[in-house]
Write a structure and sequence with these properties.
The protein is an alpha/beta fold. The chain contains 11 helices and 9 strands. The relative contact order is 0.13.
């Protein structure tokens, strides 16, 4: 596996691959890799001649300085995992090489900035859009792989690729979960074993909510149930629970079980913020 830290070397690597008509799959990460990330790598390896993974803790998508400082960094372990997963190249740039001093460019995703992650993490998706655009321009992959766990991010990246005319197939990969149902996340490494068990209540709540909706309970009733569930029975401080159209992510007032509907949730366990989602059907 090749490790590249500088943009000129990356461009040369990509140019060499393109000159021999090799297809490129790309997985963008912030490191602290887990089986969820590795499932993206596996999906890319199965479909492409070369798989490129980036590791870059992107400062512009953190609206909380302490969250950026505390984000787990496990570089040696990440490199070992990628090598064992048949990744061909890992790009690990410095912050200085990605962001020049006093950079001016910014992104805004309209109404999606005002709901769920956009609402509670102002500026987050502007930072995501900026780094993904930079990486897409540098790597120029044929396919890019993102997990369904970050449903709102996945939706935004699809919009980004479409509206900026990137000739890149955005491939969605299903969420990988712990045995207790907890969605795998780099932030899980900040939890103790007991906290991981508590954190699984996010998934349990989604399962309960989905059953109630399928059984015919109203959106308002299910939202009230979930609020009460976390107010009375959980160590998790609920931030939001929304029932949305799976494609637009707009809130819906009435559920038809034949429609594409997603249940999205976020909350804090201590200082660790966790998110999850589940499709209705």
């Amino acid at each position: 596996m090749v490790i590249i830290t500088e943009i000129p070397a990356l461009r040369q690597y990509i140019s060499n691959a393109k000159s021999t008509n090799k297809s490129i799959g790309f997985v963008a990460t912030m490191g602290a890799l887990h089986d969820g990330h590795l499932s993206l790598i596996k999906s890319s390896v199965a479909k492409n001649d070369l798989t490129v993974c980036s590791i870059f803790v992107n400062p512009t998508q953190f609206n909380n300085k302490s969250d950026l400082e505390n984000y787990p960094r496990q570089t040696e372990n990440d490199i070992s995992l990628l090598a064992k997963s048949n990744c061909d190249m890992v790009f690990m740039p410095s912050t200085e090489s990605i962001y020049r001093d006093n950079f001016l460019l910014s992104f805004n995703f309209g109404y999606l900035e005002e709901t769920m992650e956009g609402k509670f993490r102002p500026g987050h998706f502007g930072g995501v859009g900026l780094i993904v655009t930079k990486l897409f321009n540098l790597v120029t992959p044929d396919r890019a792989y993102f997990g369904r766990k970050d449903l709102q991010q996945l939706t935004l990246i699809k919009i980004l690729a479409e509206e900026l005319f990137f000739d890149i197939e955005i491939v969605a990969v299903d969420t990988i979960r712990e045995k207790n149902g907890l969605a795998m996340s780099s932030r899980n490494s900040l939890l103790s074993d007991n906290e991981k068990q508590d954190a699984s209540q996010l998934h349990q709540a989604l399962l309960k909510a989905r059953k109630k909706l399928i059984d015919g309970d109203s959106v308002i009733a299910v939202k009230h149930y979930i609020k009460s569930y976390f107010d009375n029975n959980s160590a998790i401080d609920l931030e939001y629970f929304e029932i949305v159209d799976s494609l637009s992510l707009r809130n819906i007032d009435k559920v038809e079980v034949t429609e594409l509907v997603s249940l999205c949730i976020a909350g804090y366990l201590g200082k660790v913020r966790l998110i999850d989602n589940l499709s209705l059907i």
